[in-house]
Amino acid sequence: MNVEIVDKTDTTMRLIIRDTDASFMNSLRRIMLTEVPAMAIEDVVIVENSSVLHDEILAHRLGFIPLTTDLNSYNLPEECPCKSEFGCNLCRVALALKVEDVKDMKTVYSGDLISENPDIRPVSDRIPITKLVSGQKIKLEAYARLGKGEAHAKWQPVSMCAYKFFPQIRVDEKRCDACKECVKVCSKQILVAVDKKIEVRNLIDCTLCEECVDACPADPSAIEVTWDKSTFIYDIESTGALPVERIVLESSSILGKKAGEFLKKLKKAK
Ligand SMILES: [Zn+2]
C-alpha cells in the first residue's frame, strides 16, 4: 500500500491511497464515522429558560455544538474508573451558560458557553443557539462527555468522510477532431484543448460524471472514462473536534485492535 497526502489543512485532508481495495477504505470510513470518540454535551441542567425555545430543544441544540476534544485526558464514561452516572473530572466537563439583562434583542452564541476546562470549548464561538429579547433569560449548566457516533451523530468527529476511485481518462486521438464539445461540458475543467488536441489536467478533480463521453459527437465516443479499482482519493473533513490526522490515526488503530482481538479469539477457538 502506498499513501500520499496531497492536501492538508487544520480540518481537511486529501489522501491518495494506492494498492488497496474498497472494503479496507470503507472499514476506515465507518470507524471514523462511528467509533472515533469526540466530546459533546450530553446532560443539561436548566435553571432558568424564558426564551422561545423549549428546554428540550435548547438542550438538543447544545448537544450539536462541536467541542474541541482531548482524547488523552478524558475517559469514555463506560471505561472511567469512577463508574458514576454523574461522572467525574476524568469523564465529564461542565460548561455554564448565563445570559440575562438583555437590552432590546440579543443572539446567544456558542461563545457564551463558559467551560471549566479551556481545552474543551466550542469549536466556533459564532454558532447561534437562540435569540433573546429584553426580559428573557437563560441560565444553565451543561455537561459534556466523550461518546461515539454509533450512539448519536453529535459525537461524530467528521463532518465529511468519503472516497472515490482514481479516475482514468483516455482520449483516442485517431477519432478526436478537437471539436471541444467535451471541454465545454466539463464542469471541473479537466479537459483542455491544446494545439488541436484534447489534454487531461487535474485528473484528481474528475467526478466520473461521464458528461464528456456523452458530449463527444464521434461514434463511438473518442473519450473513455474508467477508474482504477485499487487507487482511491480519500477526503476527510473534521468538525474541528479533533485534528484531522488524529482522526485518521485513531481509526487505523481501532481497526488494528479489532483485527488483533479477532486473531487472539481465533487462536483460542482452535
Ligand atoms: Zn469518571
Describe this structure in words.
The protein has 2 domains: 2-34 and 159-236, RNA polymerase, RBP11-like subunit (Gyrase A, domain 2, 2-Layer Sandwich); 38-155, Beta Complex (RNA Polymerase Alpha Subunit, Chain A, domain 2). 21% of the residues lie in helices and 35% in strands. The model has no long low-confidence stretch (mean pLDDT 95). It has 5 helices and 12 strands. It is an alpha+beta fold and 270 residues long. Helix 1 crosses helix 5.
Class derived from helix and strand content: alpha+beta
Molecular shape: flat
Annotated CATH architecture of the largest domain: Beta Complex
Output the radius of gyration: 25 Å
User: What is the top-level CATH class of the largest domain?
Assistant: Mainly Beta
Output the number of helix runs. Answer: 5
Quick rundown:
The chain has 270 residues and is α+β, with helices and mostly antiparallel strands.
Topology (SSEs and partners):
Blueprint: E1 2-8, E2 12-18, H1 22-34, E3 38-49, H2 55-63, E4 93-99, E5 105-109, E6 114-115, E7 128-133, E8 138-147, E9 158-171, H3 181-185, E10 191-194, E11 197-200, H4 211-215, E12 223-238, H5 244-269
Helix pairs in contact: 1-5
Summarize this structure as a short list of keywords or feature phrases.
12 strands, Gyrase A, domain 2, 270 residues, 4-stranded antiparallel beta sheet, RNA Polymerase Alpha Subunit, Chain A, domain 2, 21% helix, 2 domains, 5 helices, flat, alpha+beta, binds zinc ion
